[in-house]
Every structure is written in structure tokens, then in C-alpha cells.
Amino acid sequence: MNLRDLRYLVALADLRHFGRAAAHCAVSQPTLSAQLKKLEDYLGVALIERQPRNVSLTPIGEQIVERARRVLQDSNDIIDIARASRDPLAGSLRIAMIPTLGPYLLPLLAPKLRKRLPKLQLMLYEYQTAVLVEQLKSGELDLGILALGVDIDGLESQDLAHESFTVALPANHPLAKKTSFKMEDLDDATLLLLADGHCLRDHALQVCSRIKVHEAGDFRATSLETLRQMVAAGHGITLLPELATRGPFAASKNPVIRPFAKPAPYRVIGAVWRKSSTRLPAIEAVCRIVSEVLSE
């Protein structure tokens, strides 16, 4: 039994397909299949149920995959510890952001990271919150940047900034003449929201919980940009995080963007990582820069 075979097994557990697992591991399908059969022979138990067009794990296979993930993470940590001892701000760091943050934060963040952490190789991903948290726990990611307020049991977190919400509404909307909004101004409004799975949907509903709003029943957006276009077309109003109104979006005349009067509702942007992470110096350095960018 070796780490290579455990990687093959975990890949098959994740992808449930011999061909895709082999491609993921950069080996031929016969090689992967043969090595997994040798692993089963060595352990003396069946790990995989092989059926036409269907691959699943046996109950004991599921248990062994769970342990294999830990072993592989520990082996990666050993490598990280060795690298960090030479230069804690070098090597690779796997970072993921949520879709309502990444497209707006990364263009501002990337130049500063390249300048101040030139030896750090950043591997950037985008996931919805639930997937991001699971990827962190399984060791597939080193750091997550997301909106806090979700279940991150077993992980460490740090507040980075408070990001205010703004109101986006069609240019011809009767309320577009207002320069700022109180929450009561949105009473009885039609609100466009993201689809289930996006934490911004939950935050928007929470912000509007003390007033009566009507959610557009025939529409669920998959991105903030879809929301922005639907608002511009006159289908309702929405809440946008402040960062999504900066840069090229700041000059837009439709939709109209208006702030809330103070105290404005906000979401807490934070960093999340494993308690056992061996990359704390690099994580802390990235968090400082992210906090600076969000506070500008």
C-alpha cells in the first residue's frame, strides 16, 4: 500500500468513473484499475463495486477513503512544513472565493499580492459557500475568503472587513430619485435574488426581514451580473454588495446604485482555514492584504 494507490482510490471516490479518475491522476485507465485491484488484494476486502456504467464504493471502501483523505492531507502537510521552514512566504497556496466576491475583489487584489508576495504561487478557485467549506475541511484548499455567518465548525476564521449593501434599481423607477435609502423605503418592493446555494441570497433576505418585500417568483439569478441586467431591464430591484458597484460599474446609469443611510446593512467578509494548517504565515500575509483592499 502506498500514497499513489490511495490517491487513485480517492480520485475514483470523488469522480465515480474510472476514465475520469485516471485522467485526473494522469495515468491510463488500465493502470489505475490494476493498481486499485492490487490494493484490494493487499487489504483482502472489496473496496469498489464495479457495475456497467456505474461505479460505487463498498461500505468498507467508504470508510477507507475517509481515512485515505486524512493520510494524503498529512503527507501534503509534511511537504508544506518542509517548504515553510525554508521560506514561509514561498510555495503554493490554494485560495477560493465565493462568486459574489471573487470577480470584484481579485482585480484589485492580484497586483498587490504579486508585488508584496512575489514568491507565493497562488492557485485561485471560485466555489459557492458550502462547497468551499467542504473543500477546506478535506484539505483541497488552504484558505477561503467568504461572507461569514455560515457553519464553519472545526475551522478557524478571521473577520477582514464589513461590506455594506447598496440598492440597485431601474433608472426609471420612482425611487431612483432618492439619494439614499432607509430600509422602510423598500417596503412592498419586488426583490430579485440569487438562486439557492448563494449566501448572498440568505443575506439579502435577512436584511429585508423586518419589512414586507415580494420575491420575484419566476426568476432566480445565477450571478450578480445577471441580477444587474434584470434590474436594468426593469424587472425589479436588488441588493448589491458595495464592492460590486466599484470600478467599471461605478459610472453605470442603469441600474441606478444608491447607498443605505447609516447605519447601513452589511455582510462580514472573512477568511477561513483549517486549525491544523501548516501555512499560517502565508495565510496571515494574504489576509492582511485582503483586509487592506476591502478597506480602501
Question: Can you walk me through this structure?
Answer:
The protein is an alpha/beta fold and 296 residues long. It has three domains: 3-83, Orthogonal Bundle (Arc Repressor Mutant, subunit A), CATH 1.10.10; 88-161 and 267-295, Periplasmic binding protein-like II (D-Maltodextrin-Binding Protein, domain 2, 3-Layer(aba) Sandwich); 163-266, D-Maltodextrin-Binding Protein, domain 2, CATH 3.40.190. The chain is 41% helix and 21% strand. The protein has helices spanning 3-15, 18-24, 29-43, 59-86, 102-116, 129-138, 199-207, 224-232, 280-295, and strands at 48-51, 54-57, 91-97, 120-126, 143-147, 155-169, 190-191, 214-215, 238-241, 256-259, 266-274. Strands 3, 4, 5, 6, 9, 10 and 11 form a seven-stranded mixed sheet that branches. A two-stranded antiparallel ribbon has the order 1-2. Strands 7-8 form a two-stranded parallel sheet. Helix 5 links the parallel strand 3 (91-97) and strand 4. Helix 1 (3-15) packs across helix 4 (59-86), helix 2 packs across helix 3 and helix 5 (102-116) crosses helix 9. The radius of gyration is 23 Å and the shape is globular. The model has no long low-confidence stretch (mean pLDDT 87).
Brief digest:
The chain is an alpha/beta fold and 296 residues long. Helices cover 41% and strands 21% of the residues.
Topology (SSEs and partners):
Elements: H1 3-15, H2 18-24, H3 29-43, E1 48-51, E2 54-57, H4 59-86, E3 91-97, H5 102-116, E4 120-126, H6 129-138, E5 143-147, E6 155-169, E7 190-191, H7 199-207, E8 214-215, H8 224-232, E9 238-241, E10 256-259, E11 266-274, H9 280-295
Parallel strand pairs: 3-4, 3-5, 7-8
Antiparallel strand pairs: 1-2, 5-11, 6-9, 6-10, 6-11
Helix pairs in contact: 1-2, 1-4, 2-3, 5-9
